[in-house]
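Reference record:
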Amino acid sequence: MGKIRKNRVRASRADPIARASKPPSDPELAKLRESKILPILKDLKNPEAKSRTQAAGAIANIVQDSKTRKLLLREQVVHIVLTETLTDNSIDSRAAGWEILKVLAEEEEADFCVHLYRLDILTAIEHAAKAILDTLTSTEPAFSKLTKAQQRIVWEITSSLLALINLLGMAREEIVTAVVANQTILRFLFRLAASESIPQEIYEETLSCLTTLSEDNLELGQAMTNDQETRCYDVLLKLALGFGPRSVMACGVLHNVFSSLQWLDHSPGKDGACDAVLIGTLTRALEHVPSSSAVTNGNANQAAVVQLALEILASIGADLQETLEKGNCSQPKDRDEWNGIEDKAEADDAMDVDGDSNVGGDDEEEKDDEEEDNEMGEDEDDDENIGDLEADMEKVTGADDPLDSEDSDDLPTLGAFIQQAIPQLVRLANIQIDSEESLTIQSHALTALNNIAWTVSCIDFSESENSNIYDAWYPAAKKIWVKAITPIVEADNADLDLATQIASLAWAIARSLGANVPLTPGQHRRFIALYQAAKNQPKSAEGKEVDPLQGLGVKCVGVLGSLARDPAPIDLNREIGVFLITLLQSCDQDKTIPPADVVEAVNQIFDIYGDEATEHDKEVFWKERFHKHLEEFLPKLRALAKTIDKRPQSELRDKADEAVLNLVRFLKYKKTHAPKEPREGGREGKKEGRVLNEKAMAMR
């Protein structure tokens, strides 16, 4: 056998990751590198354990400075920590190494956590978590028998591990999957969550970590409920029924677990567990917040607990939609697939809406549609009658009508929301704003009210089987309108973010209550004025993505359209109808009107005047010549739809195209179902046209 030539023998290959870096071009950074960074990294590799420990501690102290941090990353500090510091014989060095990685993960972007994951950080976390588990569960010696210094080091490493796991979980879904698949890390988390004797800060970090990992995570939910070693689920459930910050955080974890396991009102889990059992604890956390003066008396931790409770309530309110669907509550058809008008003779070719069709680009269909457009005229009648609301107001200010026992058994979460949470949420929506904390609390309270109101507004209350839900929701919704919406709307607040939240909430309430909304005289004009203010708000900064369909203008239009629906008073319907038609007519000239507002106004017209059997059809739609104005507007809508770029605003473009198609068919249907009395020609028709024009000018 031949021998290997000596000149072919090579030394061990140098570590390709630990490559030498070039000095920075900035003189200041180059000086800092030479004087501070390189010496401390040299000490980190020193053979003496004491020098390594001191260097690791020093890096942990200086890594928060941005310039120092960038230089350390440039010098491959992560590689050094992973390969040398975390395997050091000194526990102090290892603790400092974990602290370095934690601070880097906190200060850098999420991509850094992905980088750590690809460097197999989970293996290092697994070994460290196992060591801590062994220390905590050891009997010889027992953890309680260790010195204070030894216990402190254990909790420092534990804190760093929890923070890293939390940040890794927030970075990418695949990392969450890998974490949950690691049984050692799960045992580590469950053991900490099931322990009552660990420091408060460590316990809160544990629950925060579990909250991140448990969101939409069936595997973790199953692992927690099946865990017989620590019985973590039972401990958290008992804790969630108590008081204090730990109880609120436990509610956050359990809400995610209930949601992932589909433990809903109609399919509860162990011992009837569902979100309803959490609402009482979350509501109690809100009761101690005063409506005026210092919100939290300077206690930042208390403010954080209140905000967390509000966030969990908001999440439960949003998830309640799935609960209602699972309970076979009838849902209305999506309005984007509008089919509120039926024409038996022309049902197939006149009223079936294809949501996938591209109207804006179909020239042949446009020609056919234009041939179908016709003109009609009508009369005008002006009167005002809003009605007396004092009796209803008295009911609103009283206690909410509770669900009866049967309804409470069917929908415990909605019942708990109405009876317990909503009164506190309404109170916090009107909290005195004297600090950033109080402003945040108000915003979170309105978000929670928005979520529950929109969930309920999606229920079709025309179905008799949903009457029990309406009866329970009715007094609570009226209280929200009177106690939360009206004071803020009438205050003419200049905060457009607050106005957007209030308009969204008002829209949801108006959708569910219809004509039973406790409007004060002329209150609808407040939303018209708010819409005018919305047009003049500054555009969002470049690079910030804003959904045009969630703008303040769209929501104001939605509120007004919902208030005008049958059986709204004729005069209220007429005033709102004229406003919407005026908005449509002026969209090509007034460039401050966003396309999303126009699309929403068209859809509201469909909803308001789609049924020719209502009194509004004859007295407003035809007398005010809305059909003629919509015919004139149709070419403008076609042109507007073509201006919307499909790439950044695909949803808006689709809605605009559908609005064009629906408007063509709406006009055709209305023409074939016009009142028999002639409405065109003569002096009267010209006079009515002049009156509407005068109203339109006044609206502008």
Observations:
- Residues 300-326 form the longest helix (27 residues).
- The radius of gyration is 32 Å.
